[in-house]
Each structure stands twice: as structure tokens, then as C-alpha cells.
Design brief:
The chain contains 19 helices and seven strands. It is α/β, with parallel strands linked by helices. The protein has a five-stranded parallel beta sheet with strand order 2-3-1-4-5, sandwiched between helices. It has a two-stranded antiparallel sheet with strand order 6-7. Bound molecules: 2-acetamido-2-deoxy-beta-D-glucopyranose. This is Sulfotransferase. It comes from Phoxinus phoxinus (Eurasian minnow). Its EC number is 2.8.2.-.
């Protein structure tokens, strides 16, 4: 059932524009469906969590995954990349795009190309983390409005075939997919123009120095992905991690600038950027803003759950899919300041210069500054909020 309703008619908010401050415009624009009641998406909303490796996208994903109106899957594009490993990101992006389009439409037949028989639900990437695959009608384990139990789901909810997953998908008002395999927005344009989809993009970014440190710790697990990001190029070992990070940083700038400064009409009102650091620092407010952006209502049990994860009161937390608390997420986010050698920090700041200034991460100029924890390297978020001008003009105005 679709719970969300347009908060006010568009005409009213247009009349209000001259009278009120930009902040209302900002809220008004984002909370309004871009094409009210004209979309044959049957009221369904499709949300793409667009991020990069080790940027906290699992954390963000859980925020949607646990919502009773959401069918959530992680990384459908993983199947594409793992099946077609010889390629580079560029040549695979349309296959990834078409895969997510099918999954948004609850058509899992696209997986025929990427998942060998028997196609059990358990073959879907990180399937047991998807609450909807552990809830009716996919599996009668977790009621839809309860927080998921990943371990039990893993043991009890595997079935042969993807038909039940398809059927489950169709019963939700929101389909949310997390994907780290897009490096630009243009390949998504056909999805934004597709009348059967009502796509919203949430772009999650994180301090590249924290990303680097986290990638360093899981370099092995990321090896196949890394080769694809580097287009299979033969890059010396000691240079690889910087070149990959550079690609990632460039992609964030590309995506952000396209959405903010040169967005075509069909992208307007459908893009929202969020920094991981703001999410873990100000969790409830940021989640509420994202829910509003995609038309989801906050529920009492979600609020409780968020309180629990942000206050580290993990009652039986070992059994939950989501173990880290925001509080230690914040500590982990700052670990680069004490553990990364300054030469590496300098190198990262160099390859990610553009992204850092665009997204509000300040460079440190010395080892002393790096280790000085009182020095905040995050530019306040307010300076990075924009709103669209009310005209058809594609330029964006700073609030
Ligand atoms: C697929 O699921 C069925 C039904 O739960 C199970 O019996 C079978 O062992 C699973 N097969 C694989 C390959 O996981």
C-alpha cells in the first residue's frame, strides 16, 4: 500500500516561492513528486542508493531495508561484474543498468544471464540481509514490520527459483537497490525517462581518506572489482589503490556536478546527495530527510531501532543484521587520522583534490594537523545544500 501522499499541490508551492525563504523551496521541491499522478509506475517508487565501495552504503542500505514498505536488494550489478569479469566498468555499465531496471520492475528473469542453475534465492548477493526476502510472502519468518534476523533467515528462507522473490517485490510500494558500480549518471537517463519507473537517486559519499583506509584493509576481497574499475589496465601494485581511488573520486564529482549544475529536466528533484559523516553524526534527522525525499513514513519501531543503533544499546544485537552502531561508525570514520601515514594522506588529498573541495572535506597540511582530533576537517553541510530555481532553467542556486 502506498502510504505517501503529496503534501501540497504544486501550484500552491509555486505561489509560495516569492514569499518564503529558499529553505522551504528546498523542502517543497524534494517532497513533491516530479510528475504527480501522471506516472504509470502505479504509485511505486524506485530508489537507487548510488555509492562506492567502503563508503558506508551497507549502513545506508539497512535504513531502507528495515522499512516495512521497502523491498531491498544489494548490488544486482555484482552478478553482472562477476559473470563478465574480463571487461572494464565502462563496457559493463549498460548491462548493469539494464539489470537494475529489470529488478526495479520486479522481473528477476534478467538473472538468467548471471546466476547458474539452480537459481536459489540464496544465490542473490547478500540475500539474507534483505529483510523482504525473510518476510511474507517470500518467507514466513519475520513479520514485515519487524527488524530482520539475518542468521535465522539464512537458515530458513532459501527456496528454489526466484519466483517468490518476484512475487514479494510486487507487494511493496518501494523497491530500493544499492549499487556501487556506476561512475556517472548518464547511463541512468533512460531509467529516469522510463514512464514505468519513478526513480529517485540517493548519492552517498564519504571522506576519501577514510575510504582509502577501509579499502586497504579489504584489498583482497576487492581485487576482482578493482581490476574492472581499472579497465583491466596493468598498473603497478603500489599505484593501484591511488588510481582506483582517483576513479572513485572523479566519479563522485561527475555525478554531483551533473545533478547539481547541468541536470536535464527529468533529473530535477530526483537526486539527493548525502555524506556518510553527516549520516552517522546526525542519524535520525538525515534518515527522516531521505525518507521524505522518497516518500516513506518514519515508523515508531524504526525510530526505536535507530535510537538503539545510535546509542549502542544492542539488545540481542548479535542476532541482528546490522551490528555496528553509528557511534562506533563515527570512530571508524576518523581512524584514518591516527593510522594512515601522512605521506599517504597527502597522496590521497592530491588524487582526490577536486572531490574533496566539491563535497566539503578539508585537506590537512601536516602530520600535526592530521593527528589533531579537535580540528574538524568537515565543512558544514549547510554550505553544500542547493535548491533548484523554480523556472525551467537548468541552473542551480545556492541556498
Ligand atoms: C535450493 O533450495 C532448495 C529448497 O530450499 C534446497 O533443498 C537446495 O539444497 C538448494 N540448492 C542449493 C544449490 O542451494
Amino acid at each position: 500500500m502506498l502510504r505517501w501522499r503529496a503534501p501540497k499541490p504544486p501550484v500552491l508551492s509555486l505561489l509560495l516561492i516569492p514569499a518564503v525563504a529558499g529553505v522551504l523551496l528546498y523542502v517543497g521541491w524534494y517532497s513533491r513528486p516530479p510528475f504527480p499522478n501522471s506516472s504509470p509506475s502505479e504509485g511505486k517508487v524506485h530508489v537507487l542508493l548510488l555509492s562506492s565501495w567502503r563508503s558506508g552504503s551497507s549502513f545506508l542500505g539497512q535504513v531502507f531495508n528495515q522499512h516495512p514498505d521497502v523491498f531491498y536488494l544489494m548490488e544486482p550489478g555484482w552478478h553482472v561484474w562477476m559473470s563478465l569479469q574480463k571487461g572494464g566498468a565502462r563496457s559493463l555499465r549498460m548491462a548493469v543498468r539494464d539489470t537494475i531496471r529489470s529488478v526495479f520492475q520486479c522481473d528477476m528473469s534478467v538473472m538468467d544471464a548471471y546466476i547458474p542453475q539452480p537459481q536459489n534465492v540464496s544465490k542473490l548477493f547478500m540475500w539474507s540481509h534483505s529483510r523482504a526476502l525473510c518476510s511474507p510472502p517470500a518467507c514466513f519468518l519475520t513479520p514485515r514490520d519487524e527488524i530482520s534476523k539475518e542468521q535465522e533467515c539464512k537458515q530458513q528462507c532459501d527456496v528454489q527459483g526466484l519466483k517468490l522473490a518476484e512475487a514479494a517485490c510486487k507487494t511493496y510500494s518501494h523497491v530500493v537497490l544499492k549499487e556501487v558500480r556506476f561512475f556517472e549518471l548518464e547511463s541512468l537517463y533512460p531509467l529516469l525517462r522510463d514512464p514505468s519507473l519513478d526513480l529517485r537517486i540517493i548519492h552517498l559519499v564519504r571522506d576519501p581518506r577514510a575510504v582509502f583506509r577501509s579499502r586497504d584493509q579489504s584489498a583482497k576481497a576487492l581485487m576482482k572489482d578493482s581490476a574492472i574499475v581499472l579497465e583491466q589496465a596493468d598498473v603497478p601494485e603500489n599505484e593501484r589503490s591511488y588510481q582506483i581511488l582517483q576513479e572513485i573520486c572523479r566519479s563522485h564529482v561527475r555525478i554531483y556536478e551533473t545533478a547539481m549544475f547541468k541536470a536535464p529536466d527529468f533529473l530535477r528533484g530526483r537526486y539527493k546527495m548525502i555524506r556518510y559523516e553527516d549520516l552517522v553524526h546526525n542519524t535520525l534527522a538525515e534518515i527522516e530527510a531521505m525518507y521524505q525525499f522518497v516518500g516513506l513514513e518514519m515508523t515508531e519501531s524504526l525510530q526505536e531501532w535507530i535510537y538503539r543503533i545510535t546509542h549502542g544499546k544492542g539488545k540481542g544485537s548479535k542476532k541482528e543484521a546490522f551490528k555496528i552502531t553509528s557511534r562506533n561508525a563515527e570512530d571508524v570514520s576518523l581512524a584514518w587520522r591516527t593510522t594512515l601515514p601522512f605521506e599517504k594522506v597527502q597522496r590521497i588529498q592530491d588524487v582526490c583534490k577536486g572531490a574533496m573541495s566539491q563535497l566539503g572535506y578539508q585537506a590537512v597540511d601536516s602530520e600535526k594537523e592530521q593527528k589533531l582530533m579537535d580540528l574538524n576537517v568537515l565543512t558544514p553541510r549547510e554550505r553544500y545544500q542547493f535548491s533548484w530555481l523554480p523556472s525551467k532553467d537548468t541552473t542551480a542556486a545556492k541556498v
